[in-house]
Every structure is written in C-alpha cells, then in structure tokens.
C-alpha cells in the first residue's frame, strides 16, 4: 500500500465512521518505532506506521486510523481531543478505535537494555540498579537520605 491508497482509505473511514470529510494529508512514516500513528495539530496531517500494517493487518491499522481521526475531528471542533478527555474516550469507543496499538516484535527487544550501573548507599547499603549513568551529587538514598556511590558493572564478553 502506498501513500495515495492510504489517503483514500483514511478519507473513506472518516466519511463512514465520523460522517465528516478528512481534508488533510495522510501518509506512512517508516521512522515511527513505538507508536502506531500520530496526528499533527499544526498541519492536521496524520502519519501511520507501516510496520503495523505489515505485522498486524488492515483491521489493526483501521483501528489506529480511527484513533488518529478522533484526535483530528475533536481538535478541529475545539473539543477535548487529548487521551485523557472524556469526549475523546467516548468518541473512540463509539467508532471502535483502539486505545493503544500493539507492540511491534522488534521494538520490545530494543527496550530491554541490561543494567550497567549500581548506585549504592554508603550509609545503609541500599542498591539501585540503573541503565544510565547518574550524577550522584544530585540524588540521595530514598530509604535513609545517605549519599550514593556509583559503580559500573562488568560487561559480559
């Protein structure tokens, strides 16, 4: 499927499910990694992750399109378009859009980085595993307010 086919598909879903026309651009964006799609408030355009179509099919992408169209139509109507707004939740349930997209198989492996550092309290010995380096002068122990010392873990070969 190309961008022109996606554009007609989004326009069709907008007319059938919302009874209103979609008058802006819809396109695929292969750089999206952790989201199924997104709506731009300034340009009113919609981008869809093509990996969702490849991995989960047209039904899942249609639910993602409905989700983004809820943002689109509510924002243009100057009503609650954010995820937390009751109007958004009600419209999403009415049209059958998905609240969350499914996780892509390759994106889940990217998030599981090993712990590389340990922060250890010098007073009580409490340990805090960390994936990134931390400025220990800014933080104290959450248990006893003691000072923290950072240790780098050995990397396995």
Annotation keywords:
2 domains, 5 helices, three-stranded mixed β-sheet, elongated, single chain, alpha+beta, Protein SprT-like, zinc ion binding, Zincin-like, three-stranded antiparallel β-sheet, 157 residues
Describe the protein.
The structure is a single chain. By secondary structure, the chain is of the alpha+beta class. The protein has 2 domains: 108 residues, Zincin-like (2-Layer Sandwich); 36 residues. The chain contains 5 helices and 6 strands. The chain has a 3-stranded mixed β-sheet. A 3-stranded antiparallel β-sheet has the order 5-4-6, with no helix packed on it. Helix 3 runs antiparallel to helix 4. The mean pLDDT is 92. Pfam families: SprT-like, Zn_ribbon_SprT. Its cofactor is Zn(2+). GO terms for molecular function: zinc ion binding.
Task: Give the topology string: H per helix, E per strand.
Answer: HEEEHHHHEEE
Count of domains: 2
Shape: elongated
On the 0 to 100 scale, the average pLDDT is 92
Radius of gyration: 22 Å
Largest sheet: 3 strands, mixed
Task: Record the strand order, biggest sheet.
Answer: 1-3-2
Give the CATH topology of the largest domain.
Answer: Zincin-like
Strand content: 5-15%
Low-confidence stretches: none
Quote the distance from N terminus to C terminus: 43 Å
């Amino acid at each position: 499927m190309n961008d022109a086919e996606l554009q007609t598909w989004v326009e069709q879903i907008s007319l059938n499910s919302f009874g209103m026309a979609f008058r802006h651009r819809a396109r695929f964006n292969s750089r999206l990694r952790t989201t199924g799609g997104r709506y731009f408030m300034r340009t009113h355009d919609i981008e869809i992750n093509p990996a969702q179509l490849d991995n989960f099919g047209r039904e899942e992408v249609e639910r993602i399109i409905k989700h983004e169209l809820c943002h689109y139509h509510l924002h243009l109507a100057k009503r609650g378009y954010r995820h937390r707004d009751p109007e958004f939740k009600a419209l999403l349930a009415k049209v059958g859009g998905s609240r969350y997209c499914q996780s892509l198989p390759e994106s889940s492996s990217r998030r599981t980085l090993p712990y590389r550092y340990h922060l250890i309290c010098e007073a009580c010995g409490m340990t805090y595993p960390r994936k990134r380096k931390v400025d220990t002068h800014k933080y104290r122990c959450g248990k006893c307010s003691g000072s923290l010392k950072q240790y780098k873990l050995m990397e396995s070969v």
